[in-house]
User: Fold these one by one.
Assistant:
Number 1:
Amino acid sequence: MKEDTRQPSYLALSKSAVRHIEAEHAEVSMSAIGVLKSDAASFKMSSAGVTLAGTNAELSLSTATVVAARRDITLTTAGGQWFTAGNNLAVRNGGAAVMAARSITVDRGAVGLVIAQHAHLGDGARVLLEPRRGVVLAGSFGVGALCATLLGFLLRRRR
């Protein structure tokens, strides 16, 4: 695996596997990246572990585990686990486990949990948990875990 720790102003990466990259602007095509720190990031047919974008991040036909951008994230036939944007998160034919942004637009996609001030769900969009339901579910799991712990503690004391 290659490792590049220099910070070029523009980086175009194609058909590569890289552990860590820092660049002002990065365009990644048909590659796998562990960690990418960039002002602006663009992925096409690629996979990323963690992406930290100073402004915008775009994913097309790609997947990522964690993407955080200060401004906008755009997903086109792409998906992943955790996406957080400071402003807008737009999804078309994609999805994620958790999305958090000021404004989220989903067209023909699926999201596990949406956390947003404004959410627009277009045709074919599906959301499993809204924030209120997510809190209720997490609270019920927490109460169940607490009860199981207390029960185990009480049963051990009697022995």
Number 2:
Amino acid sequence: MDCRHAWLALAEDQGLEVRMTAQTKTAHLIERAAQRLRGMEDLARSAPLPEGAEDPALPASLPPASPPPTSPAAASSLFAPAPSPASPPPIVAPPPTSASLAAAASAVAPVELAVMEAAGMIPWGRKRERIAEEYRVVQGQILRAIDASAKPGSCEGNAGMRNMVMITSARPGEGKTFSALNIAASIAQFGSRPTLLVDADAKHNSLSHQLGLVDVVGLLDLGAGRALRIEDLVVPTRLDNLSILPIGGRDGTRAELAARVPVATVVERVGRRFPQSVIILDAPPCLSTSDPSALSLIAGHIVMVVEAERTRRGEVEAAIDMVQACPNITLLLNKSLLTTNSTFGAYYY
């Protein structure tokens, strides 16, 4: 057998093996081609595209991706302000005890002369000015009325305390606090009598404010059911024979105390505690509150301050009607312009 026939015979005998080898070689070639194509695609993707060119791997008609749907509540919450951090609960201070109030009152320093003069007190003793002489005349009349009321039957049935003088006016701004301060200072200085000036104006508390005693324990605290001694709340001054009883109550509780504390009842307690002292009340205006009407039942004397050229006669008459329970009412004309021929002139030693 020649070589050709021998090769064919071998091929026929091993045909299956030959066919399997060819298929295997074909599959191997296809796999190598596919790997080469994948390598070329990966290389193309890694290379940067020119500006404005599109990626051929993506279809040109691919629509833009739309945001996921959100509910109205979720959308509004995206723009809602961030919640503020929760604030801690307020710290409520415990109410003051009687012992703490008494200790605070005893620690108050005497009121200096400079403070009282800044509040409007006349500088007594430096020189004899016209206004100083006029208030000396007023304090002399008050002391004579107090002494006269001590006689039997002189008060005409009035149950008021003869040592208590209420200074008031028809309406605010007429000078009652200024007059109360200077009448009390004049009695203490020239009358040589212990004098207690009481701030009984719970609405305006001008006296306590001007003397720097607005936060000091005083009159309203006595009527708040606290076990306090009146003498512990009296503030001394640098002027001999003159002491001050502030209105009392803190800024946050003063209005509440004034609404429920009977001021007249507390003032009566003060009068009975100091029967040998002259008690000057800086009371509220008659046409702004009912306190002057209640105080007129216990005050032995009333000085009604009237501002010249401003207070109307009808207002004065209405104010007098409110305090007519006291028979001893004196009108004090304030802020009047008089010539030197009708009053005191300047006089120096």
Number 3:
Amino acid sequence: MSYPPSAAANVYKKVLHQCAAAICFTNGFDAAEQGILEVITHLMTSYLNAICSNSSLNCEIAGRTVVIPTDVWLALINMGHDVTKLPGFLSKISNGTLVIPPPKVQSPPQNNAPLRVGRCRPHPQHVNEFLPSFPDPHTYIRTEISGEPDTSYEKVREMASQRKRDTETSLINFMLRVHPRTSLFRDYETKLKDEAAKAMSERERQKDARKRARKQAKVAEKTQKSMTNNNSLPDQLIDDFLEDSNKEDAVILSDSEEEDDGFELEETENSIILRWMPPFCSVLDPSLETRPYLSTLEDENNESSSTDQRLQQTISLASDDHTYDNAFLRPPRIPTKEEYEEMEY
């Protein structure tokens, strides 16, 4: 029966992974593939499991429950090892070889208790205790209001005027952004364009400086870890030992560069100018359509038609010989003298 790997098993596997990399490094290898290290780690795990199982078997045969060094010694002999070479190997690895550092202790995540408003009702006698508790009383019994809303005449008029002012400001800004406009103060707009261009260039320069600073911090942190102990194996040895470590580091750096800038809205030069220039400094260009509200009601298939085509359609709809002309939608027209005389009263 197989069980899912626990947190301790993952830590042990990581230590064995570092041991495999250290053994390859001490034997003269400069690089290795990820798959090869995985195979070596699996062989080391099987080898250690065999030693432990044989040692436990020797311990049980002797009538004991705790394994002693003699049981391990006999297990190595039964597996065909020459135990007389172990002292020489121990003295060899004790002088100037790589040492595997202990794994870092990871603090368990703290689960914050949910916020409660008021006290929950206890379970009645007919409800079992293992069932979840009742929700907060204000969610299904009664919701208390801390303060009564001000419904005076002055407050209502103030809120209505403020809402109207905000609506007008939003509509003006929207129309200036989506429709062609003409500036009444060309020199002032040119000055704002130059300042906006300088602001955009300064923002790009600061963005590049932050990226370079993050890269330097990453490199400095990595170098500091590798120089903490000259006789110890750094935590990032496996990443340096693999062939594609440089590519992985580049991907990590590129991801960290976008962490801070991903939440910033992209601002253009035109948006900066519209934000700095007051709305009364520009006027909207006149439209060639006599009924622009009808063009907004058209479907998506008619959006590709140009303004001239829509103008010709408007003129054709307003003609007298059109069979399906609507008097309520056609633009007003002053009748000629002949038409006025022909009218019957």
Number 4:
Amino acid sequence: MRRITAKAKEETLIELQSASDSQFTDESRRNGVGSLLSETASLAEQTETDKLQPNRDTVFFRDGVRRIDFVLSYIDDKDERKQERRREFEANLEKEGLELETEDKSDSKDHKTYFLKIHAPWNVLAKYADILKIKVPFKESDFPHGREVPLEFLSCPFRLPDSIIHPQPDYFTSPFDKNKVEFFLISDKSTFFPPSTRNRIVYYILAHCPYYSEGRKDREKTGIKRLLSNGTYTAAFPLHDGRYWKKARNSEPESERYNLYKHWARFLCFYKEQPLNLIRKYYGEKIGIYFAWLGFYTEMLFFAAIIGLICFTYGVLSYDDNVSSKEICDAEVGGSILMCPLCDKKCPFWKLNSTCLSSWQSHLFDNEGTVFFAIFMGIWVTLFLEFWKRRQARLEYEWDLVDFEEEQQQLQIRPEFEIKCTNRRLNKITQEMEPYLTIHSRCARYSLSAATVLFWISLIVACIIGVIAYRLAVYAAFASIIKDPMRRIQLVGRFITPQLATSVTASCINFVIIMI
């Protein structure tokens, strides 16, 4: 497929695809200079803009300048109510300052779906960054960095090079103020806010934007969530940065998504240190914290796995020296001990040496080393929690997330709460009007919540009692079947004891209950 590369404002590259690509075959592209001259001649004949179509592997509008911050998709099913909602919603989005562009259904894969592309210009980003109190840099930090770690060069094979990480200097940050833009380090307004922040701002607008006209106000007709639930839109999502499996054409520098896939999200890179700063920059702080926790948890599990492997190896090495199993299997010891029936009916007396094989098998996992492993895991859990608190505090400081959760709770009130809560009162601390629920409304909600919690607690207790009763009943049933000499399952009975059969089936029931 032949592509035409054009250069837009500043350093943005646009890839344009000719409408008559089909006339060039792979053979003509392999003909060297002659092919290049023929393509150049054909380009001169096709200079009309209507013969050029934007490349689909892009995150920009058709002009190649405005970035796509969010996408809404819908299927035009001729429903007048849905069409009216979309018109009102999109009109209100434009009143908020967002810029919209629609892709026709003919360009979609199923030829049924329309895509509404949304771009937030600088004035909208500045307005809502001020409202959401998003922290941005205003001065480079002059604090000295920590001392170099001894033998740090040993960790080089496990770290990504600086050409991939692109380390950034530390900055002092402050909540954004649109009236003091000159105080912040803004070199380029189009890239000042990272994509994750732009997506967050646009989604905040989508979640609070109504879809009713000014003449008739229905407070519940607000937000993209309701439009998704009633089928007005089929999906709402931000875009990734192009292809991840291979480098995009004319991509300089490489996209962050491509770098994350190539150097992090691959099995062959399992030994590499996670590029948490890249993850945070591309996905945001919440996803970055999640992968930081997951990586730390995996690192700590490595030590637990080593100790567990040592304990299991001890069980294997001491397999032949298991005194308890030897006594159980001994005809003079275990064979002379007569055990009581496992159930009240149809269960005969049985000898202890009939469990010889299962006792040998259980020694692999239940031996003296198991006691040490249990003690170690108790200590390991405590160390894991304390070390994670330390790692989390360091990330909060490095990523400027101190008191982040409290600030978000104060600044971002759920749209559903604002809709249902019509009362307002003055906050004595912030000196701003905020929604609140009356005491009668809160009591009713507390009562309903308490009744719901009690119901589910009772249901869980009933399930636990039911599983216990099941274990008792099924244990007796398995014992009567497996130990019955008239049954033809004596061979299976050598490997499956009533205890094992009951535990396996009860575990399956517990799994089903948990999943439900």
